[in-house]
From TrEMBL:
CDD domains: UDPK_IM_like. The chain crosses the membrane at residues 28-47, 53-72, 93-113. Its main location: membrane. Mn(2+), Zn(2+), Cd(2+) and Co(2+) support activity to lesser extents. Its cofactor is Mg(2+). Belongs to the bacterial diacylglycerol kinase family. Keywords: ATP-binding, Cell membrane, Kinase, Lipid biosynthesis, Lipid metabolism, Magnesium, Membrane, Metal-binding, Nucleotide-binding, Phospholipid biosynthesis, Phospholipid metabolism, Transferase, Transmembrane, Transmembrane helix. It comes from the Bacteria. Substrate binds at residue 66. This is Diacylglycerol kinase. One of its GO terms (biological process) is phospholipid biosynthetic process. ATP binds at residues 25, 73, 91-92. It comes from Candidatus Uhrbacteria bacterium CG_4_9_14_3_um_filter_50_9.
Length: 123
């Protein structure tokens, strides 16, 4: 069983990981801003509980996948020089995974907020 001290250490390391990615990855910072805007819109429009769950899950998916992408980039940079074609392919594939997840999140977000925005604009 994990002690409170071990749990605190684990949480501290995890928070440090978030800080490292936030400081070093511009795309992560942009995604954090987008996540904050989605959360603000969720509160402003009083979306349903189910819609809020979807928003939270998509935010978690995009941010987590961006962190995994950052890990892959660091790992392949250690094993192969940046110019190796396989390294480039790995980085491109991971970036594509983040892009696809982000686009799906955007489409779902548009679907969720479209009615709320229309009601706000049209009165």
């Amino acid at each position: 069983m994990m002690s409170v001290k071990q749990l605190k250490g684990s949480v501290t390391h995890a928070i440090h990981g978030v800080i490292v990615v936030f400081r070093s990855e511009q795309s992560f910072r942009i995604q954090v801003v987008a996540a904050a805007l989605a959360l603000i819109a969720s509160v402003f429009f009083h979306i349903t509980s189910n819609e809020f769950i979807v928003v939270i899950l998509l935010i978690g998916a995009v941010l987590t996948l961006e962190m995994i992408n950052s890990v892959f980039e660091r790992i392949v940079d250690v094993f192969k020089p940046r110019i190796h074609p396989i390294v480039k392919e790995i980085k491109d594939i991971m970036a594509a995974a983040v892009l696809i997840t982000s686009l799906i999140a955007l489409l779902v977000g548009i679907e969720i907020f479209d009615g709320y925005l229309a009601a706000l604009v049209l009165g």
